[in-house]
Amino acid sequence: MGAVFQTIEVELTARGILVVALNRPGLRNAFNEVMVEELSRAFGLRALEPDVRVVVLRGHGPVFCAGADLNWLRAAAERSYDENLDDTRKLARLFAIMNECPKPVIGAIHGAAIGGGVGLVSVCDLVVAEGETLFSLSEVRLGLIPACIGPFVIPKIGVSNARALFIGAGRIGAERARELGLVHEVVSGREQWEDAVERIVARLLECGPGALNAAKRLVQELTWPERRANHADVLEYVARLLAELRVSEEGQEGLRAFLEKRKPAWLPDG
Fold this sequence. Notes:
Layout: E1 8-12, E2 17-22, H1 33-44, E3 54-59, H2 70-78, H3 81-99, E4 105-109, E5 112-114, H4 116-122, E6 126-130, E7 134-136, H5 150-157, H6 159-168, E8 171-173, H7 174-180, E9 185-187, H8 190-205, H9 209-223, H10 225-229, H11 231-247, H12 249-259
Parallel strand pairs: 2-3, 3-4, 4-6, 5-7, 6-9
Antiparallel strand pairs: 1-2, 7-8
Helix pairs in contact: 1-3, 2-12, 3-11, 5-6
């Protein structure tokens, strides 16, 4: 009997395709601590089993992932620094686990990918986005930053683009995300989008499983040598940074303003 999940669905097809679907459609597949733990298990355990050839990451409902769950943010605002640090360490580790998954990971993205949702996109090897999909890294509007996803987003889109998106806090469309390297293919219409995902799956199944694994390792070894040498230090740094901001005066005000649907105190009057 397979593992039972609350926030995701995990299904293995007869061809060896492990479909991992975010499954909180009523909450726009928003992250919470349960989803972090369940995705860590899916990618850190199930995806490693020999019967899995390719992983497809997608989301049920109208959007792929709308970022952090409001109740999770509300709880973070009430927790101590140490409690937040435990939380952010798990979050940073999730993205590392997904990024280091030895199997090819295809991202089938639609609707929107916000905040941590962009982080999920960044750890996929091949990303197909439906043409109307929106992407945003708007954490600074809450007095926070995209810390735990930073080590994975920045290598994907480059330093200049990361600076603009991390600070600009705006939204970009699928075509712009493709230009930045976050997305690899943009397709209009749900049927064409599904066909594009299937085409990539079929192509990967024609390749040697060991060679695919080695190719992923090669890219990481050749492009992240210094980062990989200090990988644990990087994850600890981003976890501590986000935990500190969560309990800071500004972070507390930003989270509460967001949850209370009001303007934060740093906005000028009028």
